[in-house]
Amino acid sequence: MDEEQPAPLPRQFSLYQNYPNPFNPLTSITFELPERTQVRLEVVNILGQQVALLADQVLPGGSHTIGFDGSLLASGVYLYRLKTSDYEATRKMILVK
Q1: pTM score, whole prediction
Q2: CA-CA-CA-CA torsion sign (27, 19, 31, 47)
């Protein structure tokens, strides 16, 4: 009888490039957490104004993927930012309609 072993927790925080990029209108954002922590994932325009809040909650350690739908936004460059108490990272994504 084979039992699935849980995937080992990541050793560090990571925010990956969204896929696909450029996108129209759907994309996925993946990040890794080494421990259970409060997470805020937001999308901002090039002026730094928030256009979407994708997560603002406590998440368990491990790999997480959150989808983003940009169908209500104009074409252009957007930034997505992951914030925790110990980590902050920002990546660029391009919406092409």
Answers
A1: 0.91
A2: negative
